[in-house]
């Protein structure tokens, strides 16, 4: 008898609301209930929803439109799925649209149908192994064409994605059984992966991987330690000064430090230390945006936010004369960012001296 793996949401939701939800994000208990019961019904921990909130805040997105998904990924070290947060295909399309250069997308082109029976084990919602055998008919591949304006011309970017290379497994890297969604919507899920691949080809700097591509994958195989792909906006130094004066500095973002590699934490700590000595906050934000990506960038921006706010608050308590900025105190930037970074230092240095 055939058993299909099911990733159904638990019937009883009892995710406690962390105090930071109200203090940092200004959400009520009713809004939290909507997030746990409607927006992210499969999330198993409050921390997963907090990561989604942090991402949406950094990207200025409405979390109730579900621009990100809580995605289970297999951890060989733990022997179970762990919760991560990835942008949805809608969020990736939003990112492309924000560039002002996205010029449309063609309908998917499908390869021939293939029928295959998958047999193996998967872990259910109670983390118990179950045997399964399921037959799925799916398109062998899909090709999606995305258009971008390049040099004033509408250029096409087409990528092919193969179903058996893209589908999500229900039992980790050693399982071949598809997840319930890939069994139910074999074409729909592949279409999303095709869109994401073509959007990355057209917008390689702006777009990353989609949740639909990561669901059921192994976290141990990820070369990039970032859990979230995205960007964080640099704050205006004047805004930090105003906030410090009125005593309404924004609370720090909630970030799970276990998701930040130690080498990144060390690099950010050194960046903050040198920036505090030099006073070159805008240059530091430029450097961070060029150096880090994803959750690493969110962490770096949050640390700079806290340090810059503390520095400005301290400066208002005493009449401290600003000294000229020592540009050598900043860490070296990569070649593509050097010119912009040096210009920012010079501009800020002139402002300090005037």
How would you describe the overall organization of this protein?
The structure is a single chain. The chain is of the alpha+beta class. It has two domains: about 200 residues, no CATH class; about 120 residues, no CATH class. About 45% of the residues lie in helices and about 20% in strands. The protein contains 13 helices and eight strands. The strands form three sheets. Strands 3, 4, 7 and 8 form a four-stranded antiparallel sheet that branches. A two-stranded antiparallel ribbon has the order 1-2. A hairpin with a 5-residue loop joins strand 5 and strand 6. Helix 10 packs parallel to helix 12. About 15% of the residues have low confidence.
Low-confidence stretches: 6-12, 223-254, 319-338
Number of helices: 13
Helix residue percentage:
40-55%
Count of all domains: 2
The share of residues in extended strands comes to: 15-25%
- What is the chains' assembly state? single chain
How far is the first residue's CA from the last residue's CA? 80 Å
**Radius of gyration, CA atoms, in whole angstroms:** 23 Å
How would a textbook summarize the main sheet? 4 strands, antiparallel
Mean pLDDT: 76
Q: What's the helix-strand series?
A: HHHEEHEEEEEEHHHHHHHHH
How many beta-strand runs? 8
Q: What is the 3D form?
A: globular
Class by alpha and beta content: alpha+beta
Region (Disordered): 311-354
GO molecular function: DNA binding
Protein name: Recombinase
Pfam family, one: RecT
Provide a quick synopsis of the model.
The protein has 354 residues and is α+β, with helices and mostly antiparallel strands. The protein has helices at 19-25, 29-39, 46-59, 89-98, 163-166, 180-184, 186-202, 211-214, 237-246, 262-278, 281-291, 294-315, 335-353; strands at residues 68-75, 80-87, 102-105, 109-110, 113-123, 129-139, 141-150, 153-162. Strands 3, 4, 7 and 8 form a four-stranded antiparallel sheet that branches. Strands 1-2 form a two-stranded antiparallel ribbon.
């Amino acid at each position: 008898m055939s058993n299909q793996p099911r990733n159904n949401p638990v019937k009883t939701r009892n995710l406690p609301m962390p105090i930071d939800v109200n203090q940092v994000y200004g959400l009520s208990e009713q809004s939290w209930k909507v997030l746990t019961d409607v927006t992210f019904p499969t999330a198993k921990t409050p921390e997963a929803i907090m990561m989604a909130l942090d991402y949406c805040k950094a990207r200025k997105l409405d979390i109730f439109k579900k621009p990100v998904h809580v995605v289970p990924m297999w951890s060989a070290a733990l022997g179970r799925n762990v919760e991560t947060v990835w942008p949805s295909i809608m969020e990736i399309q939003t990112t492309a649209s924000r560039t002002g250069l996205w010029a449309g997308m063609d309908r998917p082109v499908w390869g021939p149908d293939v029928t295959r029976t998958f047999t193996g084990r998967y872990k259910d919602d109670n983390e118990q192994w179950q045997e399964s055998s399921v037959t799925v008919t799916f398109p062998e591949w899909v090709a999606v064409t995305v258009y971008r304006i390049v040099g004033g011309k509408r250029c096409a970017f087409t990528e092919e994605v193969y179903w058996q290379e893209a589908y999500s497994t229900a039992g980790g890297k050693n399982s071949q059984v598809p997840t319930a969604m890939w069994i139910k919507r074999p074409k729909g899920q592949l279409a999303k992966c095709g869109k994401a691949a073509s959007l990355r080809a057209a917008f390689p700097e702006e777009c990353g991987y989609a949740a639909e591509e990561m669901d059921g994958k192994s976290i141990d195989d990820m070369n990039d330690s970032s859990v979230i792909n995205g960007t964080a906006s640099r704050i205006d130094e004047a805004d930090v000064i105003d906030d410090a004066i009125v005593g309404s500095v924004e609370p720090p973002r909630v970030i799970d430090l276990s998701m930040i590699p130690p080498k990144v934490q060390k690099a950010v700590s050194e960046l903050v230390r040198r920036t505090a000595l030099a006073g070159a906050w805008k240059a530091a934000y430029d450097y961070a945006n060029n150096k880090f990506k994803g959750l690493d960038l969110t962490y770096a921006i949050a640390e700079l936010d806290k340090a810059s706010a503390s520095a400005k608050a301290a400066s208002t308590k005493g009449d401290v004369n600003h000294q000229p900025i020592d540009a050598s105190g900043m860490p070296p930037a990569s070649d593509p960012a050097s010119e912009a970074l040096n210009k920012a230092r010079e501009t800020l240095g002139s402002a300090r001296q005037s």
